[in-house]
Automatic annotation (TrEMBL), chain A:
Electron transfer flavoprotein alpha/beta-subunit N-terminal domain ranges (all copies): 31-222
Keyword Flavoprotein among UniProt keywords: yes
Entry keyword Disulfide bond: no
Pfam families named in the record: ETF, ETF_alpha
Keywords: Electron transport, FAD, Flavoprotein, Transport
Name of the protein in its database record: Electron transfer flavoprotein subunit alpha/FixB family protein
Family: Belongs to the ETF alpha-subunit/FixB family.
SUPFAM superfamilies: Adenine nucleotide alpha hydrolases-like, DHS-like NAD/FAD-binding domain
Length: 368, 281
């Protein structure tokens, strides 16, 4: 509970006392990653977590297991098999007809039962809408600790999970432990952990677990699923090149310049939060703490000041380019390359210059 | 219809500063507000009450000063406010928070009638875990609808609710039974201005104030710091990046050319990568 009048924050004052782990928790071993798959697609954050989980498991000298939950059939089997290529030592499958669409009741039971039966010491989920919905229910059912939206995971000398997450909009980080309870649970932000390389491996140990629910047991019904119309919508987080605009552009018309440059670069476009609030751009395009985290090879920000809440969403980019009229704008503190000029004039010129440089013709030039 | 809305009083994050030396949050003098996400939950609740009749009870767990946020919620039109305050609640993580809030909701249920819907915001702007909603639902055995973008229909007779839930890559249209817990997504509505009569009523209203004991908490060890499995071990500032941006000098050339030259000089592979991304291969 945060007490607004007290400093430091109440949470930070929580005493870190490690007692001997209660006897019944000593059987909890191994690192688990929940593999999020919906409608046949595995969410990439699951593979990112396999990469992070592999490191933890190696440090702890335990197994890394993937947990796949879903309807019986090809998709679930395939996801389980794939998990070996991303580092799993074994995979658990809970497959049942009632697990077709994500529903909290059925998935909570599936994951909770698997945990209670096979007892992992660490359980990681992606901090997606599904992952957060599920993790909150599972942790409460198991009465264990859950660290939210982490950006860093490690195990310390005595084998405890150290989960680090940004707080107060990224201006501070805090490291949270679940010392005396098991499993230690954490949700992790998509696009923060690097995507591990996929290495072809045979699926060796697969353990199937039964759910034991029938459709009548589940109150909530899925009437329909409406996919986002614009299929490019969810690509921002995974784009290699992103061009974004901020309030410095001055008008929704000028924002078209950002889209123009993005089109020439084959990039996704994004924006800072005020543009969403003004209704210039839809909310799925917002980059930052309360929007998307991106990790492109190239990020171009035009007319964005670089507030901490924006910064935390873009810091993983390989090359950050800032266009701003104010040479003291905070974005120049973390951009790699900056240019102090009027974006409204530069963007069209940049679009044309890139168009010329990147024509198919130039491809031949580079190749030769 | 009886609707409970959980709200949290939070420091106005736009005005939060971090002490450069001690790395502590400087909260002194920072004004507090109702967690902005909770206003979407409150407005959704008020709309349902206006449609079906009944009452909206707002509930917060916090220090005595959280009464300000409850009064504020009354000015928007909430009918009743409950403040859960006790030193035993201090330092709670989300598991301990949901224990306290779920206990208080049971007490509200006994005292003022069972809620048909419990609302929470999607997340707060300080702890921002988004774990409290699902936690309360689980503890009370309520069905949960999280990340709700739109409530399509509530049928108080058939006791059903149909809502659109934001999920990855689309929207799930879900139908479930009352009572349930709903966490509202941001930007789904706009909090009303509140009538003059509500403002007058809010100023004079009796805030129902409960200690842990009043609320019926049976096991104090499940509250606050004691009842929290998570422990904050370290708070620190992110490491600053050593160098600042290279500022492109374009005295004698078109700025666009100068910028592109700098990019390709810095990352020689970039040009080839951009060519393939520009042509979709
Ligand atoms: C809880 C919370 C969460 C938030 N989450 C997010 C988030 O997820 N994402 C996010 O982006 N923000 C977020 N914010 C908002 C954030 O604090 C900033 O207010 C926001 O990022 C500023 O947007 P901006 O840079 O577009 O606008 P401004 O800060 O107004 O900056 C505009 C910039 O444009 C420059 N400029 C002006 N004219 C020109 C021109 N012609 N050419 C070039 N440059 C020009 C100016 O020098 C200035 O630097 C959040 C805030 C809070 C409190
Ligand atoms: C920097 C920091 C990091 C933290 N990290 C974690 C963590 O990783 N794991 C963890 O378990 N705890 C964590 N905590 C503790 C957590 O913030 C508190 O338990 C807090 O009481 C509730 O969590 P929240 O603010 O994240 O709420 P959220 O779960 O984000 O809130 C969702 C909704 O629940 C309702 N709600 C939340 N709190 C209250 C309340 N006090 N009264 C009424 N309604 C409420 C509101 O409707 C709100 O919109 C952290 C605290 C801090 C300060």
């Amino acid at each position: 509970m945060s007490e607004p009048t007290k400093a430091p924050p109440a949470a930070a004052g929580r005493a870190a006392t490690k007692k001997e782990l209660p006897e019944h928790f000593k059987a909890y071993k191994h690192v688990w990653v929940f593999i999020e798959q919906e409608r046949g697609q595995v969410h990439p954050v699951s593979w990112e977590l396999m990469g992070a989980g592999r490191k933890l498991a190696d440090k702890l000298k335990v197994d890394l297991a993937a947990v796949v939950i879903g309807p019986p059939g090809e998709a679930v089997q395939h996801a389980a098999a794939e998990s070996f290529c991303y580092g799993a030592d074994l995979a658990y499958i809970v497959a049942d007809e009632v697990l077709g669409d994500y529903r909290n009741e059925a998935y909570t039971k599936a994951l909770t039962d698997t945990v209670n039966t096979f007892k992992p010491e660490i359980l990681l989920l992606g901090a997606t809408t599904l992952g957060r919905d599920l993790a909150g229910s599972v942790a409460t059912t198991l009465l264990t600790g859950l660290t939210a939206d982490c950006t860093e995971l490690d195990v310390d000398a005595d084998g405890s999970l150290a989960a680090t997450r940004p707080t107060f909009g990224g201006s501070l980080l805090c490291t949270i432990y679940t010392l005396n309870y098991r499993p230690q649970m954490a949700t992790v932000r998509p696009r923060v952990m690097p995507m591990p390389d996929r290495v072809e491996k045979p699926a060796t140990r697969i353990i199937e677990h039964k759910l034991g629910l029938v459709e009548e047991d589940i109150v909530t019904k899925v009437l329909s699923f409406i996919p986002d119309r614009d299929s490019a919508k969810s690509n921002l987080a995974y784009a290699d090149v992103v061009v974004a605009g901020g309030l410095g552009l001055g008008s929704p018309e000028n924002f078209q310049l950002v889209k123009g440059l993005a089109a020439v670069l084959g990039a996704e476009f994004g924006c800072s939060r005020p543009l969403v609030q003004k209704g210039w751009v839809t909310s799925d395009r917002q980059i930052g703490q309360t929007g998307k985290t991106i990790r492109p090879k190239l990020y171009i920000a035009a007319g964005i000041s670089g507030a901490i809440q924006h910064r935390v969403g873009v810091e993983g980019a390989d090359l950050i380019v800032a266009i701003n009229t104010d040479k003291n704008a905070p974005i120049f503190d973390f951009a790699h390359v900056g240019i102090v000029t009027d974006a409204i004039r530069l963007l069209p010129a940049l679009t044309e210059a890139f168009r010329a440089r990147l024509s198919p013709h130039s491809r031949d030039r580079i190749a030769s | 219809m009886h609707i409970v809305v959980c709200i949290k009083q939070v420091p106005d994050s736009a005005q939060i500063r971090v002490h450069p030396v001690t790395n502590t949050i400087m909260r002194q003098g920072v004004p507090t507000i109702i967690n902005p996400y909770d206003l979407f939950a409150l407005e959704a609740a008020l709309q349902l009450r206006d449609k079906f009749g009944g009452e909206v009870t707002v509930l917060t767990m916090g220090p005595p000063s959280a009464e300000d946020s409850l009064r504020r919620a009354l000015t928007y039109g909430a009918d009743r406010a409950v403040l859960l305050t006790d030193r035993f609640f201090a330092g709670a993580d989300t598991l301990a928070t949901t224990y306290a809030l779920a206990t208080a909701i049971r007490k509200i249920s006994e005292t003022f009638g069972a809620p048909d819907i419990v609302f929470t915001g999607k997340q707060t702007i300080d702890g921002d875990t988004a774990q409290v909603g699902p936690g309360i639902a689980k503890r009370l055995g309520l069905l949960q609808l999280t990340y709700v973008a739109k409530i399509n229909e509530v049928d108080p007779v058939a006791r059903t609710i149909e809502a659109e839930r934001r999920s990855e890559g689309g929207v799930q249209v879900l139908k479930t039974k009352l009572p349930c817990l709903v966490t509202m997504l941001e930007a789904t509505n706009e909090i009303r201005r509140g009538a003059m009569a509500d403002a007058l009523r809010a100023a004079r209203a009796q805030i129902v104030t409960w200690s842990a004991k009043d609320a019926g908490v049976e096991d104090i060890s499940k509250c606050g710091l004691k009842g929290s499995p998570t422990i904050v071990k370290r708070v620190f500032a992110p490491s600053a990046r050593a160098e600042k941006a290279t500022i492109v000098d374009f005295a004698n050339r078109p700025p666009a050319e100068a910028l592109i030259e700098e990019l390709f000089k810095r990352q020689p592979k970039l040009e080839a990568e951009l060519i393939s991304s520009a042509h979709g291969f």
